[in-house]
Amino acid sequence: MTKEQEQKLVFRIADLLKENKDLTNQLKDINDLNTKLQKENEKLESIISSLPSELIPKDANRAFINKTKRFEMTTVLYADIQGLKKIAEQTGTSDIIDELDQIIFHFNSITKKYKIEKIKTIGDAYMCAGGVPQKNITNPIDVVLAALEMQDYLYQLKTEYESQNKQFWDLKMGIHTGAVTATFSGRKKISYELKGDTVNIATRIASAGEVNQINISIMTYELVKQYFVCEYSGKIPVKYQGNLEMYFLKRIKPAYSKDRKIGKTANHIFLNKYLLRQFTDLQEIILDKLEKELPSNLYYHNFKHTIDVINQAELIGYGEGVDDESILLLKTAALFHDAGHIIGYDEHEYNGTKLAREYLPIYNYTQEQIDRICELIMATKLPPNPKNLLESIMCDSDLDYLGRSDFIPVSNTLYRELKEQDKIGDLNEWNRLQVKFLSNHQFFTKTGKNLREVNKQMQIERIRSLIKSD
């Protein structure tokens, strides 16, 4: 690839990241509006709850106890544990109930592991769902992984029982992804009821499947096919939707599996791709936290700067040819690198690492990954002195504005911020300081130099022309 082709590729990636940034901002505006409406709703509920019971209309009281919320992407798993009749002929009723309880108990532990919500158990039918009550983008993968683990558990038990010439349960599972309406009831112990076509389709897919197979809809298939081996299993008619295609879920693809022959356990490559997908959820939570909790006089170190650094870390990372895990570490470090301003202005890098260590274990980052992310955060402390490629990418991303066309307005926000912190004098002093900093600064990566170095030199001359001689 020629240098000209490399530059075209870098600029193309930059355009795509700008589009992504615009979409992220639009999404944030929508989420902000939704949050505002939810707060208003909570205030109304609080008012209702404080009124004497005789003054509360029946409908209002019911609305307070039972909350209904719509989720646009939920993955429902319906498991039909079969074989009750044939086992009853051989085993006592109490033994059957004990066996079923054992299975349900283990299924509950699996759903808890994958942060899936158990919805209900009716006899020998079991239903759970991912993406409720906490919305997330990974729920199709979470539910599919849980289904494979449930299938494997029942297969092991069946093998054990058959070796003793005993009858055992069979399992048919159906999985479908779509919108649901969830009703939350109870105050201390909350229970969930799901309604909608998604629930009905998951049930029908289970019935249309085969014993000991996991049957998934085409909607779920499209969301997980990158990671799992699936086989076409046929169609079922769905009201108002025509024929719905289905697939048997077989295993994790060999490239993403520790046990390449069996395909039941995900490897580190799978985990990194999963975490990259999950990053969208983490980013939304942390950016929302920054917008709500950062001091109002942070005109430069705000959530918009954080978004800029995340996008630039991804751009330069791909430009430098790093792998998926490195992109994950860079984007996560960028997300937390200025979050420490919530705790205090000085030593904000260190405070950012404290927040990272608080949040990242919840999102399944390994301890090694968390340690590396914290090192990347600390690498942004001025003056920059990176010790490896990822730290170089991080430093270039953090100071990317130095070589951008919007340098002057961005630097003005930093001046205003420092001025209110009593950390800088007049504008002339600031301009002298900028010329000195820019003259000593260097971009460390090849991509950073190609993108920003020429424009940075132009900025130095522009600022010099603004300096008034004493």
List the helices and strands and how they pair.
Elements: H1 3-50, H2 58-65, E1 67-82, H3 84-88, H4 93-113, E2 117-122, E3 125-130, H5 139-162, E4 170-185, E5 191-195, H6 197-208, E6 213-217, H7 218-224, E7 228-238, E8 242-252, H8 268-293, H9 303-319, H10 324-336, H11 348-359, H12 367-378, H13 389-398, H14 407-420, H15 427-440, H16 446-466
Helix pairs in contact: 1-9, 4-5, 8-10, 9-10, 9-13, 10-12, 10-13, 11-12, 15-16
SS elements, strand count: 8
Task: Assign an overall shape.
Answer: elongated
Helices and strands, in order, run as HHEHHEEHEEHEHEEHHHHHHHHH
Query: Average pLDDT, to the nearest integer?
Result: 86
Distance between the termini: 51 Å
Characterize the main sheet. Answer: 8 strands, mixed
Class derived from helix and strand content: alpha+beta
Specify the number of helices.
16
> What portion of the residues fall into strands of 2 or more residues?
15-25%
Low-confidence stretches: 48-56, 59-64
Q: What helical percentage do the residues reach?
A: 55-70%
What does this structure look like?
With 470 residues, this protein is α+β, with helices and mostly antiparallel strands. Helix content is 56%, strand content 16%. Strands 1, 2, 3, 4, 5, 6, 7 and 8 form an 8-stranded mixed sheet that branches. Helix 9 (303-319) crosses helix 13 (389-398) and helix 15 runs antiparallel to helix 16. The longest helix has 48 residues, at 3-50. The relative contact order is 0.07. The model is unreliable at 48-56 and 59-64 (pLDDT under 50).
